[in-house]
Amino acid sequence: MTIKTNLERALFLLIVLSFLFITAPAFAANDKTIIRIGKDITIEKGEQVKRVVAIMGQITVNGKVDDSVLAIGGSVVLTRTAVVKGDVASVGGVIVLAKDAEIGGNLTEINSTNIYETLMNSVNSQWDGWSWVFALISLSMLAVILCMALLTAALLPKQVTIVSEAISENTLKVILTGVLALIAIAPLALLLTISVIGIALIPLEVILVVLTALLGFIAVSRLIGAWALRLAGKKDAGVVRQTFWGLVIIWIVGWIPYLGWMIKAIAIVIGLGAALITRFGTHQGWKGLPQN
Q1: How many Å separate Cα 126 from the centre of its chain?
Q2: Per residue in 52-74, pLDDT tens?
Q3: How many Cβ atoms from other residues are within 10 Å of residue 152's Cβ?
């Protein structure tokens, strides 16, 4: 495997660091944690794991789980031989509990039938709910951005590709442009408040900034997804698939304490700069620049 560009080296280091942050506690305690996306998980009878997390998949427990079980976008099935010492939660699914299953923590089931009651209970501190509220907000934002991103990648694949190419081929200019654009947003809004017409243009500025940042963020996601799929040996994946997996990776990395939000912010700034220098994916001026 050859990592060709400086950007790919940086992304590789970022993924490695993220992996270490996420898995360090488990390795330190010699734990077995199972995390899968888009696949079902089955803990067989006689098998023992630390914790289980499934995103868009069902969890079936026949064996023993020393900590928690969490299914996002799927259900949890606890058979009569299941032993879970911690909490069991299903977001967007149901929990099926056999008569003889042993549960040491709480059972939390969040779906369309009880979402309002769950949020009200969390706000009223009837259980440690604020973390769940933020998790639900994060998932909701991911779902919205994912839909918008996949639609954009499907309808404007060329533009998304051009913006992502600008990031990989003209990285320094992209970063500088993104930082300068971010700095200029507030002064520009302040200048617009001087006149009545300018005040009316402030919402337009906000919309343009959001759309530009969104296009750039989609391009960053596509770039990360393409790189990850290449590492997995899938070099011919389309723009939509690359964007999907890039967004999933950014979302997972975003949960790293302290570091996660910084990574997302950097991705937004880089994307903003790339969208601007490519004029929303319609200009490839850097292609004519002399190569160093």
Answers
A1: 29
A2: 888 778 999 999 999 888 887 78
A3: 22
